[in-house]
Amino acid sequence: MEGVTDVVGEWVTFLSRYCRRQLAEIEREFPFRRSLYIDYQVLQASGKSGLRLADEVIDRPGKAIGDIRDALRQLTAIGEDRVGAINVRVHAIDRITAIRDIRSFHIGRFVSVSGIIRKTTEVRPRIIEAVFACPGCGTTVTLRQGYGQFEEPENCPNPECNRRKLKLLPVKSRFVDSQKIRIQESPEGLRGGERPQTLDVEATDDLTGMIAPGDRVVLNGILRSKQRVTYGTKSTLFDIYLDLSSAESPEREFEEVNISEEDEAAILALSRDPDLYERITGSIAPSIYGNLEVKEAIAMQLFGGVAKDLPDGSRLRGDIHMLLVGDPGIAKSQMLRYVVQLSPRGVYTSGKSSTSAGLTATAVKDDFGDGSWTLEAGALVIADMGIAAVDEMDKMAKDDRSALHEAMEQQTVSVAKAGITATLRSRCALLGAANPKLGRFDAFVPIAEQINMPPSLLSRFDLIFVMTDTPNQGRDTAIAEHIIKAHRVGELIMRSSAGPLSDEHTRLLAAESVAVEPPIAPDMLRKYVAYAKRNVTPLITDDAREMLIAYYLRLRTLADENKPVPVTARQLEALIRLGEASARIRLSETVERTDAERVIRIVDTCLRQVAYD
Ligand code: ADP
Ligand code: MG
């Protein structure tokens, strides 16, 4: 007993020392302010007792919150009637638990997870204290309600009455605003195509309606369990959810690639390499032979142009959208998967994927919301600030197609359906792959007519590559040699992990791997890209400007009305973005003649097929 009062006393000391201003605000503005935020870092740093209290918050948060309430009762400034209504929230926890590492050990403990919001439901009242009355004798019963199943009294507690059914009195009961949320691991934390895991979260009271799908957040709360019930039978299995205590924006280091001083030195050295462009292009999908222009363009997409906010309040995207249309079996999908792994934030999805959210976002009534509307983020929202690789784009749903216009140009996704209106952000670069209309290109029909997408959508791509697969002895041999090399290298690497290789195999591995190994290791390239995006915002020189304008004007006169891609001012913007990306690759603050030349060469190979002859 002694110990308990001690702890409450310690909380009184802490609160009156570090939370005085908040308490005064709650006192003054209640019920509009009714949440007390305890800064975990401050608590931990507030001496020996603070350290102990901090541990208690993590290990026994239920008890800690009870103690804090007792302490609030002693701090006479806040009336007893209010103490029960104050939310005790803890934030600024320094240890993040990975969602996939959550185990039964964590039940009842305070945990912090970081990730991206996948779904949210509407905000709805949830009953927390249900008052029942007996229609016979008027006896009332109050039951506190947890999350999930509604609990009802068996029968009237009055021994003289014994009526079976009591009636709920909603007016006398207490409700709280409640919202269900699903958070998923961030794509950058995943390696090699792992499926992201999710955790369900319940937000209550003033935390509801604050979080939208696509938001990157750190969520702190108490992990709770709920017994599974199937067809009225209780199971021994439990589901878990996070009872949300606070939500914050993630720190930089959780968000982005960490770059040490040594990394920076290596990055600067690499930027001065005379073969920089070849090495970077060669590091993109090295196991795929050829396709050098596509790879060069993908390199530019990784770096991206500069997003600009104009004085009139409008915004120009810096992200470069790219489409690969081609015959089956020419490594389009492989290329997409590779890019997703290279990008600090990549998401791979298929246009015909089965998820209800599709590419943009949807509002549906599904069982997640138990009958209320749920807003779910699709791939382009999840890929915010990264690259969304969308395979089989020609097979996407109609709804997605129209939403894609906004997502690609404004980089937002608007949803207005039933009770839900929301605008989500989708600031990502899109790398799409599609097959031609009839599955493969028909040599007797103009290629342009075989691209199965409307001009309005096509014009939003900065680059469109047409990839045909026509037999060609020389090229076919080279591809065959290359594929076999890749297989041999893979085989030898597998063997070498089992035991030492023979001298002959060691020599073979060294000789063959040159062709299929990236000149720049993926980890290094990822850092290089992150560094360039973070630190370099190139400006166009007069020289480059004149070249780009002259090329654009020539395009306008060449443009063929019968081609699927209209030549509009969008192409000029694409040239600028690509020029910026080209300059960024060598960490240059200026877009120069060489950049303009490179960009015009690439854009011209694309447009020659889809916009003019
Ligand atoms: P797509 O998506 O274009 O239909 P895939 O990406 O599924 O084709 O590729 C089919 C297979 O052919 C893959 O295993 C890929 O590695 C191989 N392949 C196709 N073209 C090449 C190439 N140029 N170099 C190496 N492998 C290739
Ligand atoms: Mg494919």
Features:
5-stranded mixed β-barrel, mini-chromosome maintenance (MCM) complex, chain A, domain 1, 38% helix, OB fold (Dihydrolipoamide Acetyltransferase, E2P), alpha/beta, 613 residues, 23 strands, binds magnesium ion, binds adenosine-5'-diphosphate, 3 domains, Rossmann fold
Number of domains: 3
CATH class category of the largest domain? Alpha Beta
Ligand roster: adenosine-5'-diphosphate, magnesium ion
Class from helix and strand fractions: alpha/beta
CATH third-tier fold name of the largest domain: Rossmann fold
CATH architecture type of the largest domain: 3-Layer(aba) Sandwich
Rounded mean pLDDT score: 87
Main β-sheet: number of strands, strand sense, barrel status? Answer: 5 strands, mixed, barrel
3D architecture notes:
This protein is an alpha/beta fold and 613 residues long. The chain has 3 domains: 2-91, 2-Layer Sandwich (mini-chromosome maintenance (MCM) complex, chain A, domain 1), CATH 3.30.1640.10; 99-254, Nucleic acid-binding proteins (OB fold (Dihydrolipoamide Acetyltransferase, E2P), Beta Barrel), CATH 2.40.50.140; 261-345 and 428-610, P-loop containing nucleotide triphosphate hydrolases (Rossmann fold, 3-Layer(aba) Sandwich). The chain is built from 20 helices and 23 strands. The chain has a 5-stranded mixed β-barrel. It has a 5-stranded parallel β-sheet with strand order 14-17-20-13-21. Strands 1-2 form a two-stranded parallel ribbon. Strand 4 (124-133) and strand 5 (140-144) form a beta hairpin. The longest helix is centred in the C-terminal third of the chain and has 26 residues, at 473-498. It is elongated. It binds adenosine-5'-diphosphate (ADP) and magnesium ion (MG). Magnesium ion (MG) binds next to helix 11.
